[in-house]
Amino acid sequence: MSQHNPAISKGIDWLLVWLYIILVSIGVAAIFATTYREGDSIVQGFLSLKTDYSKQALFFIIAGVLAIFILLTDSKLFTATANISYAFGMVLLLLVFPFHTEVMGTKSIIRFGSSFQLQPAELCKVFVNLALAKYLSRIETDFNKPKAQLIAIAIALVPAIITIAQSETGLALVYFSFFLVMYREGLPAMYLIIGFSFAALVVATLLINPNTLAVILTVLAIGAIYFLKRLIKRKREILFLIIGIWGVCVGIQRFAVPYIFDQVLKPYQVKRIYDTIGKEYVPKDAAAAADIAKQTAGKKKEDGNYNVRQSKIAIGSGGFLGKGLLSGTQTRYDFVPEQRTDFIFCTIGEGFGFIGSSILLGIYFLMLMRIVTIAERQRSVFSRCYAYGVASVFFFHIAINICMTIGLAPVIGIPLPFISYGGTALLTFTMLLFILIRLDADRQMVLR
Amino acid sequence: MSVFNQSRSTVIRLIFIGLFVVILAQLINLQLISGKYKQAAMDNAVYPKVMYPNRGIIYDRKNRAILNNSIMYDLVVVPSQARKEVDTLALCRILEIDTAEYRKRMVESIFKNSSVRPSVFEDLLSAEMYAKLDENLWKFPGFDLVPRPVRVYPFKAGANLLGYIGEADSGVIKRSKGFYRMGDYVGLSGMEAYYEKILMGQRGVNYMIKDNKNRLVGSWENGVYDTAAIAGRDLKTYLDVEVQQLAEKLLQNKVGAIVAIEPKTGGIIAMASGPVFDPNLLTGSERQKNFNKLFLDVSSPLLNRAIKGQYPPGSTFKPLGGLVALDEGIITPSFGYGCGGRYGACGIGKPACTHSNAGHAANLRLATANSCNSYFTHVYRMAVDNPKYGSVKKGYERWREYMTAFGLGHRIGVDLPSEDKGNIPDTVLYNKVYRGAWSSCTNLTLGIGQDMMLATPVQLANATCIIANKGYYYTPHFVEKINGETKEDTILNTFRKKHNVLTQISDTAYEAIISGMEDVVDIGTARIARIDGISMCAKTGTAQNFKVIDGKRTELNENSMFICFAPRENPKIAIAIVVENAGYGATWAGRMASLLVEKFITDSLTTERKKLADEIANKNLMPGYLVREQYKQDSIRAYNWFKLTKDTSVIKRFQRRNTPAAPPTPADGKTRVIKNTPPAIQNRTTFKIKRTATTI
Fold first, then answer.
1. CATH (one of 3.40.710.10, 1.10.357.10, 3.90.1640.10, 3.40.640.10) for B269-597
2. Residue A422 in contact with partner chain B when CB distance is under 8 A
3. Cβ of A293: how many Cβ atoms within 10 Å?
4. CA A267 from centre of chain
5. In this structure, are residues A136 and A385 in contact, taking their beta carbons and an 8 Å threshold?
6. Within an 8 Å CB–CB cutoff, is residue B14 touching chain A?
7. Exposure winner among A59, B326, B397, B519, fewest CB in 10 A?
8. How far is B146 from chain A (nearest CA, A)?
9. ipTM entry
């Protein structure tokens, strides 16, 4: 790499670079383990560029070139072009609508020729991150004002809405991770707490019998009144507040959630959510059953329940030490679906067991913590916001992807950073990371 | 720069830590604590391919294989490889199906086993079909001929005693506590079932790796956990397959049973049950169709009447009654009874006797030879009224002990499943029926093997063995030895134990009875069964029997019964024969027995005797009521089918008024109605079909 050039290497955070190299190498090895067939010539496999692992290795080289290119640029370039790049990203996203090619149910891919394809929704994360950082770092932005908060939220969520329109719910959800950045920059914690409580309530509604849950909520409310009675004597409003919250909660679990599940969401989406929390979904009528059948037909074994079960079997059967890279029966014989991309963690879980999975988690953890540390040492708000953006996006991807494979999150198709097969994803993560490294290298030069 | 929010970085770090703790906890749960996933992955990917051993072969006493293994071929197809270039028309022509059927089977195969795995397209091909397919297989890519072992019966004999195998059903699997699995073949009847453990051998297992489409992709761990299949062991039996074939030939078109036993060993030489069928019907591709046909036949060919047919023994019981009286010291061989054609001592003039001339029952020997009913009725009454025991009930209990010793009234333990007990009623039953008020006059016909007495042919043959052996017997059985028998094989131990049940009876008593039985053939009721050069001791029987037909207890033509052993000195064979509703004992059963004795002892039959065998074989003695019974059963089934499915195609046949319906009364010559049973028992089915526009 660029170690010999003192001009570029100055101030570069080598730990991040090494972590990056290790992760991508693990990724190529994991893809190799799932797609290599007994008897194939390995050298030929890598040189032919026809196998998935050779393609991923090629992407690694391309990503390396891109990384060097980013490191060669001036960090001012990113602040200067943040808004233009955001606009460029939006155009790219919108271009998908006329020019997309439908692949496996997603409408988010543009194809160039026969072999190269681009997924703007993936790439756009970089531009959004830059634009958001730029907006938050403006001197005239007062983030305590609701107007500023709304604009920031809009910058993050507009591409999410476009992405949902392209049937890529998973990628759209990633944009919600930018709330972490806004939280760091002063978005009231109440937003996150309310959002989180709401999610917890929805899950509880699905898991617990409605009457039992209503009783639990009531008991909680009465308990709160009892413990806060002194406070309530002084301030009557608190009583009304508790009763109000109680009313809203019961309303949500009794009416809002059933209404959304029956009327708003499509039966197959409901089924997928039920699959995630491990409950059997019984279609309420023939039309619903037909809808599920239609959605699952064509995609063989695209049954969320099946995927998660096989994935859990793969990881669980790895045990403490694992079965070895090429000895995992679950991943070698195609029991786990999408194992090169979304379910790549199974290969590591099965092949290297608890030890291997823990090491991988450790690497990710180290990387996230390092990025947060880097963020906090920035003198410029732009750099700090950008660093938090990178951390949030990585965090969200890791959380959803790994939790999905071990049965803790719904089956949402988003890649595991640096490891999953896929050129656009690898290039996007590389850009996110190396722009950060570049900004960090110049942290002494900029004030704002 | 809002320094104020600096603490929030700690919160974000805590959120990150929280997530990794949750993930790590779930990984510990999945990978370290929960053990089920390892097994689940094994179940997913490792396929234990069961290797079936060859079943054991069964040989007769001259080492001829009477139940053997053979190979038949299944036509197997992998649909995904058979899409193009298959000469469909040629294949359909060979298999004698049309292209619609071809497509249907293809779709079924894909539905059942997916298109990448092999499915059976046509199973158990006939030899001709196999030859044609083998020659033309190159025209049908994706198709293959796969061998499968099947059972064959080269002598076409012994259907009921050898039994058959079939796929284990859920009941068998449950009872075996999971030893058998779906798709296993298991002995379902006869010796195939009784000696299942020995015949089946041990399954082998080859562990194979399969992929997500259940294709086998290689052996697992290079086969270190594989076990080889061990072939089932062969059985050597006492059967003489030629005698068996003759017995089955004689029972053609008759309902009845033949049991022939070697008295010295208890080894069964032949056991046939009529109507007979070719056991090969229950192997091969038509087995299900044939089974259904046999199963629905009211003459019940699948019922082994030799062990499950319970008949009143009639006069064949008389030698046993004589022996009891002699042993109890009530009579001596010179005891005589003045019979004038009826037994009058109980005041009802019954039973009648076929002879009325003076002196036909002047002594035991003559009474046996002439089968005098009055004599043996009287002997029975004297035995149970023996003053030694005080009361008729105690006397009867003593008499019943003798019957138990003769092997009557309980299972004797032949090596076939589901033997029947027969019946020697106990005092409890008589007390119940007659409310305690009964005497030797009440059940006097027990003395001539009637009343409530019932015995199976194998019990009668065994009792004959006891007479021939003068007091001992070996439990009747087929298997002489198991190939490669070890100390652990305890299954034959019970058959090698000598049962000295009645050796306390004096030899003179036995000699007296045996002489009487010899006279039966020489000068008595069974002269027709005499064989030159072989001294045969026998007893005929012409037993009354009743059957409820159309709700009426009807007396049918008598059963033709016969027991015998030969030769008198050093007996080699003992036989019991029942031919249902055939009439006089000696005429049918007696002549059959003489043919079997001659065949077994001389190992051949003269041309003249062969002619007799053919003549008996060709005689149709099927009871006439069966025709009507079959019609009733078929029409009831048709009616139930109609009720179930509203399909009128079957029942229409029974609705036409002037079809050749079954005869209204049984077609036996001398049936007469004894009495009407109450309407509750009547088994009438009326056909009322609502005629709707759509169904008819």
1. 3.40.710.10
2. no
3. 12
4. 24
5. yes
6. no
7. B397
8. 27
9. 0.85
Query: CA-to-CA distance for B468 and B95, rounded, in angstroms?
Result: 57
Subunit contact B9:A391, Cβ cutoff 8 A = no
Angle among Cα A358, A359, A361 to the nearest 5 degrees reads: 60
Residue B478 · residue B238 · CB < 8 Å:
yes
Which among B5, B34, B217 has CB closest to A186?
B5
Q: Considering only alpha carbons, which residue of chain B is nearest residue A185? A: B5
Rounded to whole angstroms, the Cα distance separating B534 from B601 reads: 9
Which chain A residues are within 8 Å of B36, Cβ to Cβ?
A: 316
d(CA B588, CA B580) in angstroms, rounded, equals 10
Contacts of A212 (CB under 8 A, 6+ apart): none
Q: Greatest CA span in chain A, whole angstroms?
A: 80
Mean of pLDDT values over B209-228? 72
The model's pLDDT over B147-190, given as tens digits with 9 standing for 90+, comes to: 878 889 999 999 999 999 888 888 888 887 777 877 778 898 99
Q: Which residues of B touch A377 (CB under 8 A)?
A: none
**Which one of A184, A196, A313, A355 would you mutate to disrupt binding with B, by most B Cβ within 10 Å of its Cβ?**
A313
Query: Residue B583: its pLDDT value, please?
Result: 86
Q: Do B26 and A376 touch (CB under 8 A)?
A: no
C-alpha A80/C-alpha B56 separation (Å) is 89
Q: Of B337 and B667, which is predicted with more confidence?
A: B337
**CB contact at 8 A, B208 and B46:** yes
Residue B25 touches partner A, C-beta closer than 8 Å: no
Closest residue of B to A367, CA-based?
B16
Give backbone dihedrals phi and psi of B460, rounded to 5 degrees, phi first.
Answer: -65, -45
pTM equals 0.62
- Any idea where the domains of chain B sit in the sequence? 44-64+155-236, 269-597, 625-681
pLDDT category of residue A7 using cuts at 50, 70 and 90:
low
Q: Does B7 touch chain A (CB under 8 A)?
A: no
Among A24-38, B103-117, B677-691, the least confident range: B677-691
Residues 141-200 of A with CB under 8 A from B: 143, 180, 183-186
Beta-strand ranges (E) seen in A330-408 are: none
* Nearest CB neighbour to A184, from listed B5, B26, B212: B5
Q: Which residues of A159-177 are buried (b: 16+ CB within 10 A; e: fewer)?
A: bbebbbebebbbbbbbbeb
CA A339/CA A330 separation, integer angstroms: 10
Determine the 3-state secondary structure of B575 from DSSP.
Answer: strand
Sketch the domain layout of chain A as residue ranges.
6-187+299-441
B44-64+155-236 is classed CATH 3.90.1310.10:
yes
